[in-house]
Amino acid sequence: MATIDPITLATIWHAMQTHCKEMRHGIDRTAQNYLMAQLHDISVGIWDAAGRTIAMPVGLPVQFLGTAFAIRDLLKKFGNDFAPGDVILTNDPYHGGNNCHLPDWGFFRPVFYKGKLMFFTLARGHQEDTGGSYPGGYFPNGFDIHAEGICIPPVKLIKAGVENQELMEVIWNNVRWPEGVKQDNYSMIAATKKCEQRLIALLDKYGEETVMACLDEMISRTEQAVRAEIRKIPDGVYCGEAATDDDGTELDVPVWVRCEATVKGDEMTLDFSKSDAQRKGFINSVYAATYGNAIAAAILTFDPSIADYHNEGSMKPIHVIAPEGLVVNAQYPCTVGASPVAVGIQVMEAVLEALSKARPERAMAAWAKHRGHYVFGIDPRTRERYVQTSFDYDGSGGGVAGYDGYQGISALTSMGAVTRGNVEEMEIRIPWRMLKYEFAPDLMGAGKWRGGPGVHWEAINEGLEGDIATGSSDGDEVLGFGAIGGQTCPPCRTYIRRGEQEIRVKPHRLVHIEPKDTIVKLSSGGGGVGRPEERDPEMVRRDARNGLISIQSAREIYKVAINPVSFDIDFEQTKELRSKTAPKWTDLGKENF
């Protein structure tokens, strides 16, 4: 058994994290599609030869937290038939890939050292197109998953360093922008190669025994830290639920995810057995995706000091139950295109609501619903087809006990890893001109700690006719929860402004777009935590001065009287307003504010 000193342990652990970050950075710098190169819709990681999660830095939970299942499937399919230089590609959620939906292609590389299989590296990212009925992969009315795109089971795209050109051509021939997808694929493959080089160099420097002993120690330490966090939660059963507006096929009928979080000692079970049955529409989640989102939501409630140390040990004390045939464990050939958003967000919301009840001191409200869309058509500048999607329209994070919601962060299931693009980049890439992109007043859940603000976004179509698919949207009807007395997220709205007309567009729809149409999005912010009338009046005054809330909301919701010209607080009126709704404030004078 190798002797591990603290310096070596820290060096090897952080080297693993750095290698992953280098993979991600390399893809950022060399990929071409907007989702990967600008918004960072990619995830990477390192697993050992047995499928244990070694390093999982910033990424999307659905793309990598359930990857241990995929690695075990690779081992089952290929057995010992791995060699240095192999690269395996898969995007299939059902046949050995354990992926969340078809646009996320995963490239796995087995890493050998002195002839022994040691690790797998993964780069998984959202492709510009993956075939299917419509560009982008978010079409709500597919007959089955095959309507959503090409389904790639685990296949050796590169075998012992030799590319299978014929197989590559077959795959790229089934997407609409083969040259762009090809560039992105090579970017991801190169990232896994760089990680392989770094891992071999690490093994050369410290030796296999020391490296593996350090990783075993880190997994053990992380497991102990997570178990200690779970022990802080009182034993019991805590319930949470969340719904998506509909499944895109049976319209305006919410689909519910329900979680019972059972805490006993230092273990937690997240049981989704009471969730709705799988649907015909494209919101279904496979087990690996549900598992990843559920684990991520639980981790959000733990001590942030362990955030940089999660690995296999983080997941050992947490068990996820999702019976087959439910919307949280859909079976082949169910469509799953929208699952990273719906019901992915709902899985996380249900867990967070349950655990907010368990630990009010760490309560967290729902983040803003995702408001993405796909627009596709013809760009008159090039006479070529285009497809565009973005997270730019999203609101903000939900409030957390002690803190307001993070401003401008993307959807909950991205965990902040996916960012916004910039206006200039979007206008260069597609024939849409931005008209408005700003925080909107009063478009967040109020609370002692309010949600982050909502967003008002508008753009005009300067291209030819096309279509908009709102499949990756939610939140028009079913609202994200507020915690311990905080308000829910407000409803969202999307419109198409066509001349004098204003056409409402709900989530999970496909709508025709004409030249000069303007898309208007009012995307809500996050939910609030704690009663609004307990918010520090000075923070209310600051929000009003910054245009995040109106003077009227300050008075009617937060019970703070503010002069609309000077923005000074009238403390006597405020004391009177709060005395009617919040007894704990009745004995407070100006000096206490």
Concise synopsis of the structure shown:
With 593 residues, the protein is an alpha+beta fold. Helix content is 29%, strand content 21%. The protein has helices spanning 6-30, 34-37, 61-64, 67-78, 165-172, 178-206, 208-231, 287-300, 312-315, 344-358, 423-429, 537-545, 551-556, 571-579; strands at 42-48, 53-55, 87-90, 104-113, 116-126, 155-159, 162-163, 236-244, 255-264, 267-271, 318-321, 374-379, 384-389, 432-440, 454-461, 466-469, 493-498, 501-504, 510-513, 518-523.
Explain what the structure shows.
- The protein is an alpha+beta fold.
- The protein folds into 3 domains: 217 residues, no CATH class; 168 residues, no CATH class; 59 residues, no CATH class.
- The protein is built from 14 helices and 20 strands.
- The strands form 4 sheets. A 7-stranded antiparallel sheet has the order 2-1-5-4-3-6-7, with helices on both faces. Strands 14-15-20-17-18 form a 5-stranded antiparallel sheet, with helices on one face.
- Helix 1 packs antiparallel against helix 6, helix 1 packs across helix 7 and helix 6 packs across helix 7.
- It is globular.
- The C terminus is likely disordered.
Based on the model shown, name its key terms.
593 residues; alpha+beta; five-stranded antiparallel beta sheet; disordered C terminus
Neighbour order of strands in the largest sheet? 2-1-5-4-3-6-7
Count the helices. How many? 14
Mean pLDDT: 93
Distance between the termini: 60 Å
Number of beta strands: 20
Which structural class should the secondary elements be placed in? alpha+beta
Strand content: 15-25%
The low-confidence runs, each spanning 5 or more residues with pLDDT under 50, are 582-593
Major sheet characteristics: 7 strands, antiparallel
Roughly how much helix do the residues carry, as a percent range? 25-40%
* Tally of separate domains: 3
Gross morphology is globular
> What is the CA-based Rg, rounded?
24 Å
